[in-house]
Amino acid sequence: MAKDNLTAVLYGIEDMRLEQRPIPEISDNEVLLAMDCVSICGSDVHYLVNGRIGDFIVTKPMIIGHEAAGVVAKVGAKVKHLKVGDRCAIEPGVPCYICDFCKGGSYNLCPEMKFCATPPYDGNLTRYYKHAADFCFKLPDHVTMEEGALLEPLSVGVHACRRAGVGLGSNVLILGAGPIGLVTLLVAQSMGASKIMITDLVQQRLDVAKELGATHTLLMKRDDIPEEVAKQVESLMGVQPDKTIECCGAETTTRLGIFATRSGGCCVIVGMGAPEVKVPLINALAREVDIRGVFRYCNDYSAALALVASGRVNVKRLVTHHFDITETDKAFETARKGLGGAIKVMIHVQPKDTNNKK
């Protein structure tokens, strides 16, 4: 096995370094992966720019990256479902398995969750990475490594749509046409939603949403009044949405989500912004609008993989830029500034002669 384990390490605010790290030793229930594709998430950029997200603070050097796929290079003694050479998508959060949340099926709420590139745990933008084998999902031959990496954001969309109860004939409002808003759009379509409106501040993103199948788009301005926009939404859609999924984390869109949702409907909040926001709670209570939170995903990776493998969902359109791991700084600059209409920036981790850019 190669000795080269080039790794992207975040030391602190605006301090990302490429350095060699030891190749990890695996336990009986783990696999060693030769990492192939890692795409950049908004949270990765947030840690680079701010050094923290809420209570998660970068206090020591941390390997970045969590939207990833790799090839099995070594298998632990107790691993039965994977073999060397298998191509895998990596679900990046490994829970404790034994707490009430884990045993109750809500492992995403496990207080001992070890989640890639969330302090104090390392991520996987590195050439060799070890991971719990049961959180590695073997990819069918026709699913590319890039698609495998994008199962991570797609799983957020699956979880959000499941929390909202999206189904046949649903009228869905999605607030925000960033990567999470766009994957939520794709999943809502696959679940049978009949009308899907998506909003954003940037027309270019709305154009992509329209291309991906949004039935309605609405360009917003930062000073828009949520109550007024809610009327616009109903007017354009011809109905009030019964499911609203907020993917921005802004107070304005959270307020809009509640005002716009039909009485008796459900407003799901995916976007994480300020720790406290002002919301029209009495409006929601008086109209029995359910407000639900979303935290990552739980038992959603298999569904995300099935959607991609069956061709029901095409995530390839989201990948706009490609970089080698040696160009990590450039990749992050592209992602954080949205250069060239960037949606998903993909980093190819193995040396160029072995890259799989299918």
From TrEMBL:
SMART domains listed in its UniProt record: PKS_ER
GO terms under biological process: sorbitol catabolic process
Cofactor requirements of the protein: Zn(2+)
Source superkingdom: Eukaryota
Domain Enoyl reductase (ER): 12-347
A molecular function (GO) term: L-iditol 2-dehydrogenase (NAD+) activity
InterPro entries: ADH-like_C (IPR013149), ADH-like_N (IPR013154), ADH_Zn_CS (IPR002328), ER (IPR020843), GroES-like_sf (IPR011032), NAD(P)-bd_dom_sf (IPR036291), SDH-like (IPR045306)
Keywords, ordered alphabetically: Metal-binding, NAD, Oxidoreductase, Zinc
PANTHER family, alphabetized: SORBITOL DEHYDROGENASE (PTHR43161)
Similarity comment: Belongs to the zinc-containing alcohol dehydrogenase family.
Name recorded for this polypeptide: Sorbitol dehydrogenase
Organism: Musca domestica
Lineage of origin: Eukaryota, Metazoa, Ecdysozoa, Arthropoda, Hexapoda
